[in-house]
# Entry
Amino acid sequence: MSFFKNKPFRLTVLTLALLFSSNAYGNNDRPDPTGTPTQVELFVAILDIDEIDGVSQSFFANVFIAARWKDKRLAHNLGKEVTYDLKNAWFPRLTILNEQKTFRSMPQILEVSSDGTVVYRQRLWGSFSQPLELQNFPFDIQNFAIKFATAGYSSEEVQLVLHKDRTSGIAESLSLPDWKVRDVEIKVGSEALIGGAEEIPTFTIQFEAERTSSYFVVKVILPLILIVCMSGVVYWLDPSMAATQISVSSTAMLTLIAYRFAIDGLVPKVSYLTRMDTFIFIATFIIFAGLIIAVTTSILAREDRLNMARQIDKWCRVLFVIGVSANIVYAFLI
# Structure
């Protein structure tokens, strides 16, 4: 029986004994007695945010998770950590409520120290859903969150609490060029996912992000303002130049429509108008009004009423400047 003195053999026997003993109480049995909730410490670190997709209303993030709880039934004296598959020991069934499609890069195992402290670590990357409020696009500020919950356990059975040794948060440097992340907040509590349902424990890490609007100001808004201003040239052209007036108005209208299609690819099909939509919508009427005035003054010019046509253009110059200025202020500044 000298092989019992062999240390690797003893470790193997003890490990098998632990596995059989862990299966004896059932994988769904909590380590704490009925009436005492099992506290699960949670640490969440958002390592990076790759993209915020306004059309699909989602964001792509690289996240590290560490959960810790105590299960005295798994205590041992092996002198090192013992690993268990999730199917062979109790697990709080951590799930991410707004997870869409993610990829995990670490094995799905539990690490158990000699005193029964269980640690679960995982790193995942993928997309998370997030409804956006886009009324102020492209000057909007959005709230994003990753929400964890324990599937199948009520708040009386499991409690998600802050990790005692680590502070959850977000990395300072992110590969996100068009957004500025700020105001990270951790919320721990319980809530009902739908009306009338039982409350379950939740752990939410949320952050506020402000869209970098300089891109849209330089490459979209300023060109659009110039296009609208270009359409106003018709009021400074003589009514006798009808072909030129109509050509300018038509070109401005077609260019505005092309920008409209380009901007539609940046936001979802929402039922309300964003700031950009408001500007383009009013600008469309301003340009269309210029086309109508150009046709009207050309008809008056052909009927030898050139002075009246010129007088109309004179008044329209003032109204055009007021209209364009009011559109810019209403759409982007108020």
About this structure: The first strand starts at residue 38 and ends at 53.
